[in-house]
Each structure stands twice: as structure tokens, then as C-alpha cells.
Amino acid sequence: MKVHGLLIAASAIVGLCVCSLTASAAVNGVYLETRTCQVYTGPCFANGETGLAGKDAILAWGIEKGEFDGVDLSGLNVVIVVRSSETLGFQKAEDSKEVKSIVLVDDRATSAQREALINFARRQSGKIGQNVVRVDDAPIQMSLELSDLTANLKAGKEVAVSTRKAKPGDCICSNEVAYYPPLAEKLDNFVPGVTVEGRFNGRGLGSRWSTPGARSAYMGLFTY
Predict the structure, then answer these.
(1) If DSSP codes are grouped into helix, strand and coil, which group holds residue 2?
(2) 194 forms bridges with which residues in the sheet?
(3) How many C-beta neighbours within 10 Å does residue 14 have?
(4) N or C of the chain: less Cβ packing under 10 Å?
(5) How far apart are CA 10 and CA 6, in angstroms?
(6) DSSP assignment string, 190-211
(7) Cβ 64 vs Cβ 75: under 8 Å
(8) What is the pLDDT of residue 189?
(9) pLDDT given for residue 25 in this prediction
(10) Is 60 helix (H, G, I), strand (E, B) or coil?
(11) CA 183 to CA 57: how far, in whole Å?
(12) CA–CA distance from 147 to each of 41, 98, 150, 151, 164 (Å)?
């Protein structure tokens, strides 16, 4: 009986250790996205853009703490900019014939952190991260204010995004919803927003764009 009791106690301790290690290895932080189509909108507006707009997007992760591939990524950021042949809609990029992306990696990262950040962004973006045509280091500043749901992102000279939460005054048809889902694979919580400033003027995708004042953003939290 004593041996049996010891085995139960040991199993419980092992279980607690495994859970503790799993929790400590999780990666969590904030997420920001903007596209060249409306995501907080009504069906009529969305259908009017299908096939014409929404082929470009910026996805950004600000990692607050945690490890990925066994590497500590706390305090680092990574950005993916994507160009798709089709509108990034309900199927994200899955039904696109051609998808190209670039990855911008926090220039504070070590070589091991750099590789882990690239793998992290590619894994969390599905098909968007499969055809990366360029990877560059850049100074990246990213923030999400939970109190008023505003966000800011700057990645070198190529990417600049600032957003705010969508408000009732942003409605046009009074039938607005978070129409297309976020492009990231998994988010704990997210809200649609208005892109106050959103631009990409880099190379490699055959497209440079700016979408100020558009209902085209998402802000969220993630845990992987």
C-alpha cells in the first residue's frame, strides 16, 4: 500500500511538472493584422470587393513571453507581408493559386531566435507562410493598448500600421459584422478595427499599397 501510495504521489508530481513545463513553454502575446479589403463590413460591401480587393495583407505578432522550438522569444516581434492572387477571405489563402510573402524579423534577435521567429510566423500563417521570397531583419516596434484597443506597428521603412477599434459611427449599412476571419491560424480573442494608417512600400511582392481609414484591421491576443 505504501509503494502504491508513493507511485500515485510520484505520478502526480510528474504530471504537475509536465503541466508546468508545458505552460512555461507556451508562447503568448499580441497580434495585429490589416488587409486591402474590409473585414468589418456587411455582405454587400464584402461581395463587391471579392476578386478585386483584399489580395494584400500584413500580419504581425508581438511575443510577450514564451519559447518556440526550444528558443526563448520573449519581447521579440515578427511580421509577414503577403500578396495573393485571390481575395484573402473565408478560406484565407487556401484557394489562392499563387501566394508570395516576405518575413521581417526583429533585428534584436540572435541567430537562433531569428530562425525560431521565422518558423513561428510561417507555422501560424498557414499557406501564407509557405512561399517566402524574402527574409530581412528590421527594427520592429509593436504595441497594443488593451484599455482603448488601439495598436501601432512599424517595421523598418517598409511597414507602418496604426489601428483603433471599430465604433458604431463606422457603420455604413448598419449590418456590419466581423465578416472575414483573421488570417492567423489561432487567436484567443480578437476584435475588428479601423486602419488609421496602413502601408507597405517594400520590394519582392510586386505590390505596394496604402489603406488609410479602412475598416480592414484585426487586433488580438494569442497563446500557442
Answers:
(1) helix
(2) 164
(3) 10
(4) N
(5) 6
(6) EEEEEEEEEEE--SSSS--EE-
(7) yes
(8) 95
(9) 54
(10) strand
(11) 9
(12) 24, 39, 8, 11, 11
